[in-house]
Design goal:
Belongs to the peptidase M20A family. GO terms for molecular function: metal ion binding; metallodipeptidase activity. Keywords: Hydrolase, Manganese, Metal-binding, Metalloprotease, Protease. The chain has 479 residues and is of the alpha+beta class. Helix content is 35%, strand content 20%. The two termini are 24 Å apart. α2 runs antiparallel to α4. It has a six-stranded mixed β-sheet, sandwiched between helices. Strands 11-13-9-14 form a four-stranded antiparallel β-sheet. Strands 4-5-18 form a three-stranded antiparallel β-sheet. β4 and β5 form a beta hairpin. It has two domains: 298 residues, Aminopeptidase (3-Layer(aba) Sandwich); 127 residues, Alpha-Beta Plaits (2-Layer Sandwich), CATH 3.30.70. It has 14 helices and 18 strands. Bound molecules: ligand L7UNP4BN and zinc ion (2 copies).
Length: 479
């Protein structure tokens, strides 16, 4: 290992408490993009990030895509475009991350306040919304810059950064900006790196070369002009909730089998060679059980589990807006309910074909219900799946970085989640995109008690910095 890398690692260890304080300041800003009322906090988070970047000597520009199409009363929060270094003799790496987070309420079952970073000194677990998704990794890039400065080690590349505040709400506005900036702000980029997913287990790092896409829908069912007393009106009116539950029940069975005709036919068939690939991946069912906090898996073997997560589509029902959900026994008939579900998509599912079969199915099943209520189904947002080749110097550099920080070769993984802009970056810049996760499978991203382990954060900062050093050394040939 180059001596300067060891100097960098030592400095990261020395500065660890300061880096945790920076994460704690970021988690304290509840930048929930899905919540209208929280929009000023999302903007505050952008300002926080901009301030930190400028204090490190980066130049920062903002892009303002305007109003949200679905919620025109809300302005899309600023997309931050930053540059650190402008040395023509160095490689330029473009990194992306998001500063918005999923919603979180203490009442959802969090053990601690979701917007206070709560560090358990014994286990090293750092609980807080956004700790792993994606504030920890975003700050990882800033921390890497600062540790180089404090160690007096030259930064090995020029770094371009693109940080958005709408990823958890479909990355509204970002695709157009990426295409607009491909030949402008991003023009020097030699490769792209995104740190916004998770290791397959809790011990071994991975590099990720594929993602599922996502098509997210809502079904609105309404009838009565207002909520009704179920004792007075129950049995004499068509109830929207009953219709909605019936319709949602036609989508998927409890073994994960998608019941929408035509959807599974859009999936690229798996060949024998591909099947073998899954046998070689170091993953145990225990990794899954640790991640979900129970043994309630549909499959009992590793291959079927990984294929269900990465290689096949899934359909999940997320919630019902307008449903009675508080404690107690309110005897209400909700007048209007909105069901939310999404389909995780895989090669070769085209989003418009998915929409066609899903919306046709809903109309067909609705007719069969024969009700007096009204139903409207629509797509809320869609992002396409992405699969690339890990045979590129970008991946080779990241693999060396994993070896130097963790002393092992990384797993090569795909990911069941979605980062729709990954494909946009690849297509708009024409450059290789690498996913280099910081967090582990046990981090409970999107769930209650989301956390990032201190080890993953601090070693992750070393990993991001080491990756940039190896990127600078990799030969120019594109493989
Ligand atoms: C993998 C990434 N960290 C993530 O959580 N992505 C989200 C993207 C999304 C799509 N609709 C709303 N958010 C995900 O996979 O759910
Ligand atoms: Zn994320
Ligand atoms: Zn997320």
């Amino acid at each position: 290992m180059a001596p300067q890398l060891q100097g960098y690692f030592n400095k990261v260890d020395e500065m660890a408490e300061g880096f945790i304080k920076r994460l704690s300041d970021a988690v304290a800003i509840p930048s929930v993009s899905a919540d209208d009322a929280m929009r000023p906090q999302v903007v505050k988070m952008a300002q926080f990030l901009r301030g930190e970047l400028e204090a490190l000597g980066a130049t920062v520009e903002e892009r303002h895509p305007g109003a949200e199409p679905d919620r025109p009363h809300l302005q899309i929060p600023p997309i931050l475009l930053a540059r650190y270094g402008n040395d023509k003799s160095k490689r330029t790496i473009l990194v992306y991350g998001h500063y918005d987070v999923q919603p979180a309420l203490k009442e959802d079952g969090w053990a601690t306040d979701p917007f206070v970073l709560s560090v358990d000194q014994k286990s090293g677990k750092m609980f807080g919304r956004g700790s792993t998704d994606d504030k920890g990794p975003v700050l990882g890039w800033l921390n890497a810059i600062e540790a180089h400065q404090k160690a007096g080690i030259e930064f090995p590349v020029n770094l371009l950064m693109c940080f958005e505040g709408m990823e958890e709400y479909g990355s509204e506005g970002l695709d157009d900006i990426i295409h607009d900036e491909a030949k402008k702000f991003f023009k020097d980029a030699d490769a792209v790196c995104i740190s916004d997913n998770y290791w397959l287990g809790a011990e071994k790092p991975c590099l990720t070369y594929g993602l599922r896409g996502v098509s997210y829908y809502q079904i609105c069912v309404h009838g009565p002009g207002q909520d009704l007393h179920s004792g007075v009106y129950g049995g004499s009116v068509s109830e929207p909730m009953t219709d909605l539950v019936k319709l949602l029940g036609t989508l998927v069975d409890n073994k994960g089998k998608i019941l929408v005709p035509g959807l599974n036919e859009l999936v690229k068939p798996v060949d024998e060679e591909e099947k073998k690939l899954y046998e070689g991946i170091s993953f145990e069912m225990k990794d899954l059980y640790d991640g979900i906090g129970s043994c309630s898996s549909i499959y009992q073997d590793k291959e079927s589990t990984l294929m269900a997560r990465w290689r096949f589509p899934s359909l999940s029902i997320h919630g019902i807006e307008g449903a009675f959900s508080a404690p107690g026994a309110k005897t209400v008939i909700p007048a209007k309910v909105i069901g939310k579900f999404s389909v995780r998509t895989v090669p070769n599912m085209e989003p418009h074909e998915v929409d066609k079969v899903v919306l046709t199915h809903l109309e067909y099943e609705w007719e069969k219900i024969r009700t007096n209520n009204t139903m409207e189904a629509k797509l809320l947002h869609a992002g396409k799946w992405w699969v690339s080749s890990p045979k590129h110097w970008n991946f080779a550099a990241a693999s060396k970085a994993v070896e130097s920080v963790f002393g092992c070769k990384p797993d090569m993984t795909r990911e069941g989640g979605s980062i729709p802009v990954t494909l946009t970056f690849e297509q708009a810049t024409g450059k290789n995109v690498l996913l280099l996760p910081m967090g582990s499978s046990t981090d409970a991203a999107h769930s209650i008690n989301e956390k990032l382990d201190r080890r993953n954060y601090i070693e992750g900062i070393k990993l991001l910095g080491a990756y940039l050093h190896y990127v600078a050394e990799e030969p120019q040939v594109e493989q």
